[in-house]
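#structure-requests
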Amino acid sequence: MKIITEGGCCVNQLRGIILEGFSNAGKTSVLKSLKLMQAQDESAERSVIVLSEHYSQVLHNVRGQFITSSHEEHLQLLSERVAMLRQLEEWSTKLGRASRGSRGVFFILERFHLNHRVAYSDKTNNEIEAIEKELLHFGAKCALLTISPEIAELRIQSRTPDEWSNKSSEEIKAAADELVATQLKLRKAAANSVIPTLEINTDNKAWDTYAKEIIRLLD
């Protein structure tokens, strides 16, 4: 595990984590552990928002068809999600300062700003930087989940073995190569982001351990 970027944020009633990583890196498993850990912490926020990648990613399954959002469409999508957090912060501020448990909000966003930076690497970054700065103000930190290149083929096959059983070795290698290449792009995007990012290697599938590392990052 290593810190890619470092930074600070304002003290407020929001805090949260952004889970980034290519398919098969373990985002869903870590998300489950994070939700369970937060629910079991009696001192944690009682208000929790969890948005899976279906509400923020670039590629969407719309009535059985995969559709890729345009640069402008995806920026609008992310802006709408951030606006929701902004409204919650404004409401909390209006009520006045109280304990994190009573009025605080814990949020988890999956596939967000880094997903955007990689998908539209040929575009200017002014808009996504503004979104990142606001997320930073809301206490956001990022966890980039990665796997080692040498286990990429095994990992992608382990998730849906029946689907991959009929694939050729060339197809499996191509998928693994894409995974590794995208990880490098995500790592570069994280280095350019203002949001503090912790890269976590998930080779061992120790989901609870990774979740604990992420919670410590927030604290």
